[in-house]
Design goal:
The protein is mainly alpha-helical. It has one domain. The chain contains 9 helices and no strands. The longest helix is centred in the last third of the chain and has 33 residues. The protein is globular.
């Protein structure tokens, strides 16, 4: 239990960057919190590591560090993205609301990584579940890297055009799909070692929570893209034929689902 409290404190401390700009709670604070949790778990369980748990923590650090760093660099280099953040942060958010967001986000990040935590706490070694989890985690991260590279390349050609090439041919939000794959891998890795109510509650809520956040993010992106490209016939055709978040699953829009607000 002491180790779990330490993980929560790490998540709270790092995600507190959101008090500077509240969107950081679930952007920069999110990425660096996951990386910080991965580092903390390696330190806390350094005497009881296995190859699989080391790889899982390394993947969490890679994922979180890359995401947090990418968002910071994009904000520094891109005036348009910086303006977007300012617009999304214009409305005054009361301190009490920020406090609730902070605690909720920190708990979510602990829940997302809980399967790895409890695997390490139990000293579980390498098994089929850990291997499947690692493969899914690595696949999800790789998809996000490819999607970012392809989007960056396409925007250099025409910064005012939506991206529909590469992995974007199959799904409109490949990064969010990559997130779903990654966190499904984390959840699967713990299925054979979650043996207490606390372990199951944290892991299930963390997994459901990040799925909700990803669909909410897809809705927010869809609304933004509709404002930018909605008048283009090519965009409307693209939206009509390309699933929004999961390839081959015929869900083409979530903009009308107002309950997807995170």
């Amino acid at each position: 239990m002491n180790e779990l409290i330490i993980i929560l404190i790490v998540s709270l401390v790092i995600s507190a960057v959101g008090f500077y700009m509240y969107v950081y709670f679930f952007s920069v604070g999110y990425g660096f919190s996951i990386a910080g949790i991965g580092i903390a778990m390696l330190i806390l369980f350094r005497e009881n590591l296995s190859i699989s748990t080391v790889i899982m923590c390394a993947l969490l650090i890679l994922y979180g560090g890359r995401l947090g760093g990418y968002l910071l660099i994009r904000e520094i280099k891109s005036i348009a993205y910086k303006d977007l953040l300012k617009n999304e942060s214009k409305s005054h958010v009361p301190f009490g609301v920020k406090l609730c967001i902070w605690i909720s986000c920190a708990l979510l990040y602990v829940g997302e990584t809980a399967p790895v935590f409890f695997r390490m706490q139990r000293g579980a070694g390498n098994d089929v579940f850990s291997i499947i989890g690692i493969v899914l985690m690595a696949g999800g991260i790789l998809l996000e890297i490819v999607a970012d590279y392809q989007k960056s390349a396409a925007k250099k050609v025409d910064s005012h055009m939506f991206v529909s090439s590469g992995v974007y041919k199959w799904v409109r939000c490949p990064n969010y799909f990559g997130e779903l794959i990654l966190w499904t891998g984390v959840f699967v890795s713990g299925l054979n070692i979650l043996n207490t109510p606390l372990a199951w509650i944290l892991s299930v809520l963390g997994y459901i929570g990040i799925i909700y956040v990803m669909f909410s993010g897809a809705r927010r992106l869809e609304l933004r893209q509709e404002r930018n490209y909605g008048k283009m016939e090519s965009y409307r055709e693209y939206v009509k034929n390309t699933p929004i978040i999961i390839p081959f699953l015929p869900i083409y829009s979530v903009k009308d689902h107002k309950w997807l607000v995170a």
